[in-house]
TrEMBL record:
This is PhzF family phenazine biosynthesis protein. Belongs to the PhzF family. It comes from Bosea caraganae. GO terms for cellular component: cytoplasm. GO terms for molecular function: isomerase activity. The active site is at 47. Pfam families: PhzC-PhzF. InterPro entries: Phenazine_PhzF-like. SUPFAM superfamilies: Diaminopimelate epimerase-like. Gene3D superfamilies: Diaminopimelate Epimerase, Chain A, domain 1.
Length: 295
C-alpha cells in the first residue's frame, strides 16, 4: 500500500490555529489526478498542494493546487505554505523557490529569523492584472445577504479580475462586512445569468480605509463557504487599487478571517510595470501537523 507524507501549516498567521490551514504532500510522485482530488476533499481545507519534480531542473518544483472540488491554476496561501514547508527541508536557493503552476511560474521568497528558522514567505503573482465583466451591485448584495446600498460603487463596480486566478471583487460599507452571509440560491442565480463567469463565482468583499483593508471571501458553489485568508484575491485587489488610484506602486495590509475566529494578516504590494500592474502577497506561516496518507 503506497504511503504519502504530508505536513500541515497555518498560513498568514504567526499563531497556530489562526490563518488559513494548508496540507502539503511533499512528494506526490505516483499519485493520480483522482487521488489528488480525493485527498483534497478528504483534508477539507480551502486547498491542498501536491509537490512534483519540475519540468525545468532550474526550478524548485511543480506544484499542483486542489480545492475541495477542482484543481486551481494558482492560489496565494498554498504557495506561501508550500514554500515554507519546502524551505524547512532545505529546498530553497538563497531564500528563493520557483514553482511551476498552471498559471505560470511563481517566485517565492522565504523569510527567516535570526536563528535561521523559516517564518513566512512572499510570492509574486504569475500574471499582471487583467479584468473581466462587471456585475450588478444588487446581484452581489443578494449573494452575501446584504442590501444593494451596502455595496459601494464609487471607486469601482463589482468586477471580475485576476493575477492568476479569477475572483469577483466588490467594495462594501465597513459596517456591512460583518453582516455578510452567503445565499446559495442567489449565487446560483447570478452565476447562471452571467456565462462569462465560466462557473467561477468566488466573491471577495472588502472595506478599505486608506492602505488598511478588511476582507471576506465566499465561494460556496466550489465548496468553500468562507475562506479565512485568500492570498490570490488579496493580490488581485492590491493590483486593482493601484490601477484605480494611480501612481507607480502601493502597499497595503489586509486582515481576513476575523469573523471565522481565524484572523489572518496579509501584506500586499502592487507595482506598475511595462506589462501592466503586478502584485505580491506575503505573510507568516507556522507548522502544525505531520502525517501520511495510505492509498
Amino acid at each position: 500500500m503506497p504511503t504519502y507524507a504530508y505536513e500541515t501549516v497555518d498560513v498568514f498567521t504567526s499563531s497556530r490555529f489562526g490563518g488559513n490551514p494548508l496540507a502539503v504532500f511533499t512528494d506526490a510522485r505516483g499519485m493520480s489526478d483522482a487521488e489528488m482530488q480525493s485527498l483534497a476533499a478528504e483534508m477539507n481545507y480551502s486547498e491542498t498542494t501536491f509537490v512534483l519534480p519540475p519540468a525545468d531542473p532550474a526550478h524548485t518544483a511543480r506544484v499542483r493546487i486542489f480545492h475541495r472540488t477542482a484543481e486551481m491554476p494558482f492560489a496565494g496561501h498554498p504557495n506561501v505554505g508550500t514554500a515554507c514547508v519546502l524551505a524547512r527541508h532545505g529546498r530553497d536557493k538563497d531564500g528563493v523557490l520557483l514553482f511551476e503552476e498552471l498559471a505560470g511560474l511563481v517566485e517565492v521568497k522565504v523569510a527567516r529569523d535570526a536563528a535561521g528558522n523559516v517564518t513566512g514567505a512572499t510570492i509574486a503573482a504569475p500574471q499582471p492584472l487583467s479584468t473581466g465583466i462587471e456585475l450588478p451591485a444588487d446581484g452581489i448584495a443578494a449573494c452575501v445577504g446584504l442590501a444593494p446600498a451596502d455595496v459601494a460603487v464609487s471607486a469601482h463596480k463589482p468586477i471580475q479580475a485576476s493575477v492568476g486566478v479569477k475572483f469577483v471583487l466588490a467594495e462594501v460599507r465597513a459596517e456591512a462586512l460583518a453582516r455578510a452571509l452567503p445565499d446559495i440560491t442567489a449565487y446560483r442565480t447570478l452565476e447562471a445569468a452571467h456565462p462569462a463567469l465560466e462557473k467561477r463565482l468566488s466573491l471577495f468583499i472588502y472595506a478599505r480605509d486608506g492602505a488598511t483593508i478588511r476582507a471576506r471571501m465566499f465561494a460556496p458553489l466550489a465548496g468553500t463557504w468562507e475562506d479565512p485568508a485568500t492570498g490570490s484575491a488579496s493580490a488581485t485587489l492590491a493590483a486593482l487599487l493601484l490601477k484605480l488610484d494611480g501612481g507607480d506602486s502601493a502597499r497595503f495590509e489586509l486582515t481576513q478571517g476575523v469573523e471565522m475566529g481565524r484572523p489572518s494578516l496579509l501584506k500586499l504590494t502592487a507595482t506598475r510595470g511595462p506589462d501592466g500592474v503586478r502584485a505580491t502577497v506575503g505573510g507568516a506561516c507556522v507548522p502544525v501537523f505531520r502525517g501520511e496518507a495510505l492509498l
